[in-house]
Specification:
By secondary structure, the chain is α/β, with parallel strands linked by helices. The protein has helices at 24-41, 95-104, 117-123, 139-145, 168-183, 185-194, 213-224, 232-239, 243-254, 258-276, 281-287, 293-304, and strands at residues 12-18, 46-52, 58-59, 65-66, 70-71, 78-84, 108-114, 131-132, 150-151, 156-159, 162-165. The chain has two domains: 12-178, Rossmann fold; 214-313, Arc Repressor Mutant, subunit A (Orthogonal Bundle). Helix 1 (24-41) crosses helix 6 (185-194), helix 7 (213-224) packs across helix 8 and helix 8 crosses helix 9 (243-254). It is globular.
Length: 313
């Protein structure tokens, strides 16, 4: 798993490289979860720039023209570079483009191919020895064309400092997973709710899937019992499974135990109430399952980096 935190200020610097006929849908599904994470966290956790190879305008597949923030060669680097060619991607693998991608690989911590972006990364030799995926319509051609890449028919893949997602919806899933890995399951769950993902969505690792109703039931019970937290065994009974089974399901979905996710949900609600500014700290602590305001303040500071009084409007 790549290290995704810019240690200077905690802000992750992201660049998205666009080509003509890029997918608006895929672009929105890449940047909107990051925007939502910034809103949920109350700070700039993600900063992104849109780039093209020459810095000139690009036109989406639906005919919308976009003026990028600059050209790829002028970007000094960052935490991740997302490559988003979408349609006509096979025409973009020119020597100049591939050289630019190879140079960028030395400046960015992580490279990600979205939609058909894996094709360009593979042509540049930047996926050799890595596992990767691509839009399923191109999967067979991709696996045959690049034998040094381990092609895997997954919705998205993270392999060390390389990532790939096969389409627009899976780009959302990948970014949501990365947000959860850095900022916890509660932020991921809040973003899923904002975009009406979750029970009816096609999930992936890091996002509860429609097939895992027990995780969804447990989350529903958690949300309904923030003021009086239940034990993990009680959550398991409500979800219709054994405690160990529920713990395994949560680890697969979030990389965390039910107890940790529960605490994150309570702290997310605490942050919302603190920002609203309508309740005292003592009242907020009770609503979030803490009978002792001092213990609540310690937990809040450990989660959000500041005491609740310092975050009230």
């Amino acid at each position: 798993m790549p290290i995704w935190i810019n240690q200077s200020d905690g802000t992750q610097e992201i660049a998205v490289l666009l080509f003509n006929r890029f997918s608006n849908y895929c672009l929105a599904n890449t940047v909107e979860p990051m925007r939502a994470a910034n809103d949920a966290l109350g700070r700039i956790a993600y900063r992104w720039r849109l780039l093209s190879l020459d810095g000139g305008p690009v036109t989406s597949s639906s005919g919308m023209q976009l003026m990028p923030d600059g050209k790829l060669s002028d970007m000094p680097g960052g935490d991740a570079l997302f490559i988003l060619p979408s349609y006509a991607y096979r025409t973009y693998g020119t020597p100049a483009c591939l050289d630019a991608l190879r140079a960028a690989a030395h400046r960015f911590e992580t490279l990600a191919g979205l939609d058909a972006g894996s094709w360009l990364l593979a042509e540049a030799g930047l996926l050799n020895g890595y596992s990767a995926t691509i839009h399923f319509d191109e999967f067979e051609r991709f696996s045959e064309r690049f034998p040094d890449v381990t092609a895997v028919r997954e919705r998205w893949i993270v392999d060390r400092d390389r990532m790939s997602a096969g389409g627009a919806t899976t780009a959302f899933e990948l970014v949501q997973h990365l947000i959860a890995s850095t900022h916890g399951a509660a932020v991921s769950i809040e973003i899923a709710g904002l975009f009406m993902q979750g029970d009816e969505s096609a999930g992936a690792r890091g996002v509860p899937t429609p097939g895992d109703r027990r995780v969804q039931r447990a989350l529903t019970v958690m949300r309904g019992n923030l003021e009086t937290p239940l034990s993990v065994s009680a959550l398991a009974r409500a979800a219709g499974c054994r405690q160990r089974d529920l713990e395994d399901r949560f680890r697969r979905a979030f990389g965390a135990t039910p107890r940790t996710v529960y605490r994150q949900l309570r702290m997310a609600e605490a942050l919302r109430l603190v920002r609203d500014g309508d309740l005292s700290i003592a009242e907020i602590s009770l609503r979030c399952g803490y009978s002792d305001p001092s213990a609540f303040t310690r937990a809040f500071r450990a989660t959000h980096g500041k005491a609740p009084r310092n975050m009230q409007a």
